[in-house]
Amino acid sequence: MFKKIAVLAIALMMLLVAGCGNSNTKNESGSGDAGGKQTVTMGFWGTAEDLKLYKDAAAKINEENNDFQLEIKQYPSSEQFWDTLPAEIAAGVAPDFIKVSNEGAYEYISKGLFTSLDEYIKSQNLDMSIFNENVVNVWKVDDKQYGIPNTMNAAMFFINEDMWKEAGLGEYPKTWDEVYEAAKILTKGEVRGIGINLHPYHITNYLKSYGGGWNYGDNIASEENIKAMDFVLKMYEEKLAVTPKELGLGWDGEVFANEKAAMTTGGYWYKAFLKDANPDLKYAVLPIPEGTEKGSSMISDAYVLLKDSKNKEAAVQAAYKLTSEEVQKQFMAIGHNPSRTALSEQYFNENPEFKEIEKALDYSTDWEYPEKTKMFTDKLSEELEAKVLGGNGKSAKDILESIQQSIK
Amino acid sequence: MLKADTYAGRNKIKKQTTRPRFSLRSLADSDQFVGWVFSLPFLILWGWWFFYPFMESFVRSFQEVNFMDLSQGKFIGLQNYVLILHDPQFYQALGNSLKIVLIAVPVQTVLGLVMAILVNQKIKGKGLFRTIFFIPYITSQIALTTVAMMLFKENTFVTKFFTAFGMENVTWFASTKYALLFVTLLFIFQQVGFTMIVYLSALQEISKELYEASVIDGANAWQKFRFITVPMLKPVTFFVVSVGTILGFQIFDQIAAISRYGALGSPAGATSTVITYFYQHGIRYMNLGYGSAAVVIFFFIIMLITVLQKKLLDDKE
Amino acid sequence: MIFTNKVSKIGIYTAIVLLALVFSAPFLYTLYTSFIPIKYVNTFTGLENWTFDNYKTFFTSDAYSVSKWLFNTVVMTGIILIGNLIINPMAAYALAKLDFFGKKLIFWIVVITMMIPYHMILIPVYVNMAKLGWLNSFAALTIPFLYQAIYIFMLRQFFIGVPNELIEAARMDGLTKMGAFWRIVYPLSKPVLITVAILTFAGTWNSYLIPSTLANTPEKYVLVVGLNSVKDMFFENTPLVMAGVVLTTLPILAFFFVFQKQYMEGISNSGLKG
């Protein structure tokens, strides 16, 4: 037995050494000078389709320029990326630039992890006016540009058309009050009027439509926010609303696809999901209803530059090239709304069910989560779960105040 | 038990005559030398890839660390420790961890032993049964939890079945009352396979003659179990219990799975444990100093428990 | 052995079959879900709607290199397995049967190491790996894990039970203390070594956090990490994930099924049994 193991051990140790050797040579060729070019690395997490799209784009970009070599690094998941990023930075192996969503980017901007692009936009004369003006603003903090936007969309409100018609309801709602009245009629048996996922994405849209918001952590318990939160809690108290967790489902899209709620707040990913999960479901898409005013959040992916990047000029150049018309068209083909104004129009023509949303793009704003974003989002979920699932007697004001307290 | 007393007598006589001089052979026969040579591979790897990084964490627990530059930690004394020990969420997490361990460890130890004895019988298809009992241990816990979540929703037959025992018909992992129990059950379900195979291999070491001799002495099945099996398994039981405790404190995947799309320890912190507490603060919130201090506190707690268990269970040494 | 009469035999079978039902249910449900299209998730549907598409996706889509992931996993698991079957028993034996300076300290090192979850020190480990240029190599995936304190502890508990007479007898036959271990005790410990092998195999094969941190380029993905990167465009495709789980679990099941037979042989067949 021992001899067999020893033989195997030697064989495997050799493999190990071979493995190390391989990876070393690979690293060298990666970071070294591929024909005198600097290497810049773009990090992202996403699907295999995204990876293919990026690899093809990078190959083309590398062919067309002599300044840098663009490499693509895929992470298995976003949690994976964020959890190893501190270590990657400490070890000096983080990518030069990454694709991130604006839902969470502020924490890293305020911690100084991402760096402003203004200097490079100026030196390279990059035309930012090709992008939707509002989405360019979403990526500004203190008047400094932090991201080159790739995609954008506004939050949406979904209605199950068949349920709506069956209930004999007329026009689709424009305000939360109308939603409330409709929810009372739509709540029947196992179906609740509305799905409200106790997740910051959804809650934020309620706040914005009441003229409130997180305001980067300032005055969270504002009057507008209390009003919005009161509405959310009222829907739960009167058993008109349901959160996915109660039903044992993962997220709001599943609730809607399983026809357990007649209405829900959601986003553009519903389209692809519903096509697979419930192809027969007919649905209408509206902007987020009004509380006291028009308001919703804008979700956008952009390329941001890491402060530790050694090739900042080249990285910004590469990032800008990745928002070319050609690349963005490919993103459109897999269901994203491109940040380029001209292409965005085309997107809404090709996705007529989202037509109503186009207008919402003009007034949708950034999430404006507090600086300690992850702590904040965790706390928000915890407080709302304790209230809705745990039945503690806190009021909307109590909840918002204890969130304010925790992020000090 | 291994038996070789045929040689024992010869052994005593010869020992006197072969006092070796210094040689390779005598080195290979010396407790000091062999002890160190055998421990060395472990010690090298441990020092390199455990002790050193752990000491880095330990030092960091007295610092406020900006993850942008780990070498530039600011020394702040015991402040991290003070903050943790004043955080009510830490005590909630600690309480949950203790509950998991106190329920899971006795159950999985007894159940694991029973199952090991069952599959050690002369029965048909025992290889198949062993494999089936081992499945939960080797399946990805995230996947297993996902499946269990499909079964423990409101109005499923499983949830309805448990209403017979006074439970409410609600989604277990969405209930602040039942979520911790749900996680504990899943942990037992996973861990019992481990306990079973450890006991199973220990059962192979118990000499058949011991049982045969006891039959001659008129022992019944229960007496054989009580006076042979249980005492012979004592060192292994110490292992199973202390490992169960340690792993019970480290339970993570199940909680991560039910907390997806929300805060770890969902709902509302009902399943937060010392490990999720560390993970949130040290990794998610990137507060490495604070997280490291949580590790150190965590370490002392388990250390205390293990020393107690050793006193109670392991009288061999 | 313990139970002999017919009544208890029936009792045993009833108990074992009931337990088997409970223990196989989640896996069967996983298996079921891996064969259905996503729109039937959470419901029961007849055989006519079953499909192999979820599995096909893994093997036909050129986006996934399942064979490469499998290769990486096999190499990683193989190296760690062998390390653990050599380093752990050696240290355990020293702690159980040899009397040397520092033994108590080393025992406590083992116990303490066991108590600390590895991901608590993963960040410093990562940084040190990066300094050595080891990231995304098999060295990173294996070298720190060639031993496991928990198995040293477990083996020590077993070796304590090995009678000293056996070792003395081996020395009388001309073996040194070192030789007695390799030639007598090690081969005789087959059941417990197989246990360690099975547990190490399962633990390594299934590990996600460590390989996904230390080797996160697609070229070095192991099976679990690779399968985890397989997601649909905007959401998780449960049946696809479940197919991945089945694909990952089957090799461990096979490994276990083959090696658990060794228990039946055990020491009683080793010839040295009195």
TrEMBL record, chain A:
PROSITE patterns: PROKAR_LIPOPROTEIN. It comes from Mesobacillus subterraneus. The keyword Protein biosynthesis does not apply. It comes from the Bacteria. Keywords: Cell membrane, Lipoprotein, Membrane, Palmitate, Signal. The keyword Lipoprotein applies. SUPFAM superfamilies: Periplasmic binding protein-like II (SSF53850). Gene3D superfamilies: Periplasmic binding protein-like II. Pfam families: SBP_bac_1 (PF01547). Residues 1-23 form the signal peptide. This is ABC transporter substrate-binding protein.
UniProtKB/TrEMBL annotation, chain C:
The keyword Translocase does not apply. Keywords: Cell membrane, Membrane, Transmembrane, Transmembrane helix, Transport. It holds the Pfam family BPD_transp_1. It is a multi-pass membrane protein. It comes from the Bacteria. Coiled coil: none annotated. One of its GO terms (biological process) is transmembrane transport. The chain crosses the membrane at residues 12-32, 69-93, 105-126, 138-159, 180-202, 240-259. InterPro entries: MetI-like (IPR000515), MetI-like_sf (IPR035906). Gene3D superfamilies: MetI-like (1.10.3720.10). Residues 70-259 form the ABC transmembrane type-1 domain. It is found in: Cell membrane. GO terms for cellular component: plasma membrane. Belongs to the binding-protein-dependent transport system permease family. This is ABC transporter permease. It comes from Mesobacillus subterraneus.
